[in-house]
Amino acid sequence: MEYAAKLDHLTKDFGSFKLDDVSISIPGGTILGLIGENGAGKSTAIKCLLGILKPTGGSVELLEGEGLAGVGYVPDECPFSDQLRVKQVGSFCAGMFSGWEDALFTHYLEKFELPAQKKVKELSRGMKMKLSIAVALSHKPKLLVLDEATSGLDPVVRDEILDEFLSFLSDEDHAILISSHITSDLEKICDYVTYLHKGRVTISGAKDELLSKYGKLSCSKADLAQVDPALIVGKREGDYGCQALINDREEFRRACPDLSLDPPTLEDLMIYTTRGDRT
Question: pTM for this structure?
Fold first, then answer.
């Protein structure tokens, strides 16, 4: 599988907000992280991908034409009735998915230590999220789509879930699209990152290449004034010093050999791009 999903020049116009000319490709065997502030269009892009929303323009291709049957979707809130018992969720889903395997669902209940006889309403947020992931994996999808699936979870539970995602990727015929505010999680597992800002793709590419291309500068106001503004994505100026995100580390080194750069984080890319936009 060359690509698990492609969004090609996707547009969704709500009038008050527009997802504008968004193109994203998810190669097979990889994880793509979708980042952006609240209201940037991440959930809109995912809903267009899943056919929940009809795009205004552009196109969507899933699993090279296989469509939604091969997609496992995990929303930010557990979608199952509070009154269902955990075991009943499996019975309910068995009639929804053609590839459903009861034995696989039981395996994940045991692996995630989910109590089969408890009602959904009795589960913690972390357990509800594990239940949603167990369901998504139990019909053997090729593409997992996760919309803020790790938000609000403690670090131990998040780490356990991230390990499960990496295990899923051991088959190169699988891929994951994950939207999250927790950029440190995405730095651990993602191969590719796309940053949506105000409905448009601002930064996109291989995660390691992006983090090696950009740099974080800490310096005095006098030093910052000497830097070519074209190299500055965004900046923060204070009484005792300045910080800035530089968009081309190699060009900066040639232009400012006496100043040094620190490695940025995905959070830096988000924050300073937003600050640059406001400036």
Answer: 0.91
Which one, of 34, 32, 39, 38, lies nearest residue 14 by Cα? Answer: 39
Same domain? For 229 and 111 the reply is no
Q: Compute the half-sphere exposure of residue 213: CA atoms within 13 Å on the CB side of its CA.
A: 15
Q: Do 81 and 171 belong to one domain?
A: yes
**What's the number of CA atoms in the CB half-sphere (13 Å) around residue 6?**
13
CA distance 72 to 50: 10
| Last-in-domain residue among 158, 183, 209 | 209
Tell whether the torsion through CA atoms of 212, 218, 221 and 223 is positive or negative.
negative
One domain for residues 104 and 239 = no
Residues of the domain holding 251: 214-278
Burial class of 71 by CB neighbour count within 10 A (0 to 12, 13 to 18, 19+): buried
pLDDT in tens, the chain (279 residues): 789 999 999 999 999 999 999 999 999 999 999 999 888 999 999 999 999 999 999 999 999 878 788 999 999 889 999 999 999 999 999 988 888 999 999 999 999 999 999 999 999 988 999 999 999 999 999 999 999 887 777 888 888 888 989 999 988 889 999 998 888 889 999 999 999 999 999 999 999 999 999 999 999 999 999 999 999 999 998 888 999 999 999 999 999 999 999 999 999 999 998 876 555
